Amino acid sequence: MLDLVIKNGRIIDGTGNPWFLGDVGVKNGEITHVGTVDVESKDVLDAKRQVISPGFIDGHSHSDLLVIDDPCMDIKLQQGVTTEVVGNCGLAPAPFLEGKGDLLQQYIGPVIGETAKPWSWSSIEEYIQTLVVSNTSENVATYVAHGALRIAVMGFENRPATRTELSQMKHLLNEGMKAGAIGLSIGLLYSPGRYSSKEELAELCEVLPAYNGLLSTHIRGEGNNLIESVKEVIWIAERAGISLHISHLKAAGKRNWGMVSKALEMIEDGRARGLDVTCDVYPYEAGSTMLSTVLPPWTLEGGMAECLDRIRKPEVREKIKAELSEEQEEWDNLIVSTGWDSVVISAVSENNQHLEGQSIEAISQSLGQDPADTALDLLLKEDGNVSIVFFHMSESDVEQVLASDYSLIISDSLGCSTGKPHPRTYGTFPRIFETYVREKKTLNLEQAIRKVTSFPVQRFLLGNRGLLKPGYAADITIFNPETIKATATYQDPIHYPTGVDHVFVNGIKTVSQNENLKTNNGSMIRAQRTLQCSRHH
Ligand SMILES: [Zn+2]
To answer: Cβ contacts of residue 70 below 8 Å, gap of 6+?
Structure first.
């Protein structure tokens, strides 16, 4: 007697093979049958020729705290996502060490957001335990985040780590990997990540091979320094003998458009030499980050409070403005190449909410002010917490990365979905099928599904998931390929998609016709370094 049989679907199993008509049987949270299923079952669902797919994997998000506050995770489950990978870009809320808590909160707040619940963990193992008792409705896996390690050991200090500090960071990384983290994430655009040399990072990464751990990278520069930055992380991975994943590959800034071809070539060349390297991409031409990341890096030394002090000093403010108005050798000045009109405010405090959805350029015009002053004033008023949507990519670059054999597709959604968040938060997965399968035909349905199921599972060591195959976890998404649609837009981003009919997490129906059944049936996934038959261990 099975728990569930889903009948009459177009089965797309996650391998990339063409769909076929058939049924899927489920028992005890696992897939037991695929094909024609004539076994008795407690529950039968007619899929009515809709697509039956493995549940989607969001291999890159910043839901680290959101899953604790909102374990139902409507924003992802409504899109058909059954598993999220957090701890990305060097940002994570653990390890959380006494005396360094404020710095860590300040560091991750703008991306990961805050939580109403107290941070009751210190180590990564304790953070994972917190997720376990939070009873999330989706499955979650995490990285160890480099920024959190550096803050724990040396705060925001802009200098190389000493031998002792490096061995302390190695110790923390080792602990996180032991707890089941899938690898190390680094964010070299952010402080304090940017204060680390490639040599220091390569040495830290010596911890990873013992765990088959992946190095996942938000590279140092995604604009003028894209190629140098890709080179740097390839150097680190080859030096440390580890696998490499380049997060949200893009060429930011108009003058760099087209450079993704070269970056993809470097990935192919690396693979030809035997380097295990891949990348991911989100299906939008705008990114989302903190306003402070557009500033010259030296302004952020010592953390946000010191940065704001610098902005308050008239002579320093003039220096910042002068640097922002010219091309820079040392860092990516995206403002000079893309313009203040491409920077749109997405979230600020209540006082300035009327600015959400407007560009810095438009706001400055209405104030009759220099746009750089508008940006700096806003940072002061908001204590540095200003989130932006940044239109700095070209559509053809996005399509090129989406189409690459070596890219998987992710949301990069932020944890704070206040204000007007980037529409990727609510729309990424439906948009893949709506825009890049149905309309632009960049990918076919089976390729697109592979990029959000079996490929990320293989990449992020998520075990027996991501395929419709006996013995695999029954994470299943049923959707209508003709109507699936992201309704979230840049101006009006807080809308659930349509066309996703049913979502099962570990065999339990979790979303049905846009209703979240709050099943709390997700699991914490610790890295599965060896694939093995799930029923016999
Ligand atoms: Zn990132």
So the answer is: none
> Cα–Cα distance between 196 and 315 in angstroms, integer?
29
User: CA-to-CA distance for 364 and 352, rounded, in angstroms?
Assistant: 14
HSE toward the beta carbon, residue 21, CA cutoff 13 A: 4
**How far apart are the CA of 187 and the centre of ligand 1, in A?**
6
Is the alpha carbon torsion for 157, 160, 165, 167 positive or negative? positive
* Cα of 125 from ligand 1 centre, angstroms: 23
For residue 245, how far is its CA from the centre of ligand 1 (angstroms)? 12
Report which of 290, 288, 306, 286 is spatially closest to residue 298, judged by C-alpha positions.
Answer: 306
Q: Which of 119, 116, 64 is nearest to 90 (CA)?
A: 64
CB-proximal residues (5 Å) to ion ligand 1: 89, 218
Which residues does 136 contact at the CB level (< 8 Å), separation at least 6? 67, 71, 73, 520, 522, 524
Tell me how far the alpha carbon of residue 78 lies from the centroid of ligand 1, in angstroms: 23
Query: Side-chain half-sphere of 49: how many Cα atoms within 13 Å?
Result: 1
- C-alpha 37 – ligand 1 centre gap (Å): 43
CA of 437 to the centre of ligand 1 (A): 25
Q: What is the DSSP string of 458-484?
A: HHTT--S-SS--TTSB--EEEE-TTT-
Q: What does the pLDDT look like over 133-144, one tens digit per residue?
A: 999 999 999 999
The set of residues, in sequence order, having a beta carbon less than 8 Å from that of 46 and lying 6+ positions away, is 7, 8
The answer for 100, left when phi > 0, alpha when psi is -120 to 50, beta otherwise, is: alpha
By residue count, the chain amounts to 537
Cα distances (Å, whole numbers) of residue 521 to 64, 269, 477: 18, 42, 15
Written as one letter, the residue type at 250 is K
Q: Among all chains, which residue has been given the structure tokens 């349509």?
A: 498
The closest alpha carbon to 24, from 39, 35, 40, belongs to: 35
- Give the HSE-up count for residue 470: Cα atoms under 13 Å, Cβ half-sphere: 8
Structure tokens at 122: 């210190």
**480-523 pLDDT, tens digit each:** 999 999 999 999 999 999 999 999 999 999 999 888 888 999 99
Least confident range of 144-153, 311-320, 406-415, 509-518: 509-518
**Residue 52 Cα, ligand 1 centroid: separation in angstroms?**
31
Ligand 1 midpoint to CA 343 (Å)? 17
CA of 413 to the centre of ligand 1 (A): 10
pTM (2 decimals)? 0.94
pLDDT at 116: 82
- Cβ-based neighbour number of residue 361 at 10 Å: 16
Tens-place pLDDT, residues 1-15: 999 999 999 999 999
88 Cα to the center of ligand 1, angstroms: 7
**pLDDT of 216 strictly over 50:** yes
535 pLDDT higher than 60 = no
CB 137 within 8 A of CB 81: no
